[in-house]
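Suppose you are handed a protein chain with no further information: no name, no annotation, nothing but its sequence. What can you learn? This example shows the usual starting point.
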Amino acid sequence: MLEEKGVIIWERPSIFICDDEPLYCEEIHRICEKTLRDMDISEAIITEGYDGKSVFEYRGKIDILILDIDMPKMDGIQVKNELHNNRSNCAIIYVTNHEERMREAFGKQVHGFVDKMELQSELPVMLKQLLEDYSNYVMIHGEYKSRDIRYIEAARDFCKLYFCDGREVLVKDKISKVSKLLSEVDFVLINRSCLVNMRMAEGIRDNIIRLYGAGLSEIELKISVRKKKEVLERWNQYKRKRMGYV
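A reasonable first move is to predict its three-dimensional structure. Written in structure tokens, the prediction is:
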């Protein structure tokens, strides 16, 4: 039994700002406060840190990490990779003056990129989109959120859900029915029996899509010849959206 989209109530979102330049931290902090007020989200936690290690020294939960790419000792890309190894699913918004490192920084947890010279215009849009994006998911059987799923495999009249925390769950629904509903939330059918969450994808090469889950090993899934063009188009559109181009 599939259900309609759910809504997440952000009772107290936790935003961590990490930049080695305190002036940028202050500016980002002000932008976050205004954006949250405009969205009527109260009692948010906003914390600042001035190097990559501060992210891991922080004892609270981080929902959204606004992260500089270029920092001494531990840069933003190293932070992202370590968070992945630690099974963290916090969403990352990169702020940077170095567009040449955007491809290197792209990954499952990365929601988008903001130019430091355009913070006032770009960051509120990206932050609002992220909060809305996290509220955009489908509930399966009343208890499984689509955003927590890496991929889904058909098993006759059943589907097997593979979660980013390593769980595996079998539900009674056909893949065709699941695919139709989940196409609205960044899932794509890569062959007639496998449905992939593009939020969990690291990249596509030849006829293979590579997936990660928080702390899990890489998995490679085969794209059928018939589906290759559609999957590549959806993947490129998804990347452009995450990088703020659409």
